[in-house]
Amino acid sequence: MRTNNIEDFLNDYYDPEKQHKDIKFIIDSLKEIPELRSSLPEHIMDLEELIKQKKIYINSELFALLDKTDSLLARDEILDLLVFSKKDKEKVAEFICNELIKYEHIPISKEIESYLWFLCDKLFSLKVKKLIDKYHKIAQISSFGKQRQLLILLIGKIGDTSSIPLLIELTEDKTVDGHALDALCNFNDHRVIEVAKRFVDDKRTWVCKKAKKKVMLGVVIL
């Protein structure tokens, strides 16, 4: 049986008292709902409970579902489920990186800005270190502007010294300079101290404090 409305679908198939919980059927049915292809499937997050309670693996079906919709809001929700599942972290993170890179040469609308922020936020949550080269590539896409801020913080937390030159370069970009400094402060390197000195009189309180602390510690350490 097919339904035309996500809410009706959930009422029919997500009732905890009912036993017919074939996940592939649920996902296939969701593919047929017109709302999913055109707008936010606001009830799809109920799948979280299903995943949490039953510990069901549905990531392959969710990846297939991503191929069925171009709606950024729908993709947002589906990717949220993939991150929530805590399975296949590296695969999910790599998919998100590739999703970001797709927008390198596309004009950035307000809707896309929100989506880029969401994607970088999910990468920050996943914290997959192996993809550092892809993080570097994304961080260099200047058209993404401030949407890169969380990704830049992630690069700093990973602590790979190959990131230092890129982060220093990003301190010249006004949309991410404070976050690049924050990321650099994870490294004990004389180059970082020199960069921090440029920000000790910054008008942004949090940036100024971060810079002064790094310079002070750097003098003691070095």
Structure, described:
Helix content is 63%, strand content 0%. The protein has 222 residues and is mainly α. It starts with 5 loop residues before the first helix and ends with a helix. Mean pLDDT is 82; it is low at 1-7 and 36-43.
Please give a quick description of this structure.
By secondary structure, the chain is mostly helical. The chain contains 14 helices and no strands. Helix 9 runs antiparallel to helix 10 and helix 11 (164-170) packs antiparallel against helix 12 (177-184).
Q: In whole angstroms, how far apart are the ends?
A: 71 Å
Radius of gyration (Å) = 21 Å
How much of the residues is beta strand, in percent?
under 5%
Please give the count of helices: 14
Keywords:
14 helices; single chain; mainly alpha; 222 residues; elongated
Secondary structure topology:
Layout: H1 6-13, H2 23-31, H3 34-38, H4 47-54, H5 59-66, H6 72-85, H7 89-101, H8 110-126, H9 132-139, H10 149-158, H11 164-170, H12 177-184, H13 190-197, H14 205-221
